[in-house]
Amino acid sequence: MNQKLVISPSPHVHGGDSVPKNMYGVIIALLPALVASLWFFGIGALIITLTSIAACVFFEWLIQKYLLKTTPSVSDGSAAVTGLLLAFNLPTNIPLGLIIIGAAVAIGIGKLSFGGLGNNPFNPALVGRVFLLISFPVQMTSWPVPITSRLHYIDAETAATPLSVIKEGVSAGQTIPELMSEIPSYINMFIGNIGGSAGEMAGIALILGGIYLLWKKIITWHIPVSVIGSVIIFTGILHLIDPSTYADPLFHVLAGGVLLGAFFMATDYVTSPMSRQGMLLYGVGIGVITVLIRVFGSYPEGVSFAILIMNAFTPLIDRYMKPKRFGEKVKTVRAQTSK
Amino acid sequence: MLKTFKKGGVHPDERKISAGKSIEILPLPKRVAVPTTQHIGAPAKPLVKKGDIVKTGQLIAASGGFVSANIHSPVSGKVFKTDEVVDASGYRKPAIIIDTEGDEWDESIDRSDKLVKEIALSGEEIIKKTGEMGIVGMGGATFPTHVKLSPPPGKKCEILLINGVECEPYLTSDHRIMLEKSEELMVGIRILMKALKVNRAVIGIENNKPDAIGKLTNLAAKEDGIEVQPLKVKYPQGGEKQLIDAITGRQVPSGKLPIEVGAVVHNVGTTFAVYEAIQKNKPLIERVVTVTGPGITQPSNFLVRIGTPVGQLIEAAGGLPDNMGKVIGGGPMMGKALVNLDVPVTKGSSGILVLPHEEAHRAPVENCIRCSKCISACPMGLEPYLLMIEAEKELWDRAENDNIMDCIECGSCSFTCPAHRPLLDYIRLGKGKVGQIIRNRN
Amino acid sequence: MSIVLITIMTLVGLGALAAVILYLASQKFKVFEDPRIDQVEEVLPAANCGGCGYPGCRAFAEALVKADDISDLNCPVGGPDVMAKVAEILGKEAGKSAPQVAVVRCNGTCEHRPRINQYEGASSCVVAAALYGGETGCSYGCYGLGDCVEACDFDAMYMDEETGLPVVIEDNCVACGACVDACPRDIIELRKKGPKSRRIYVNCVNQDKGAVARKACEVACIGCGKCVKVCPFDAITLENNLAYIHDDKCKLCRKCVAECPTNSILEINFPPRKNKPAAKEAATEKTEEESK
Question: Residue by residue, what is the 3-state secondary structure of A250-313?
Answer without folding.
Answer: HHHHHCCCHHHHHHHHCCCCCCCCCCHHHHHHHHHHHHHHHHHHHHHCCCCCCHHHHHHHHHHH
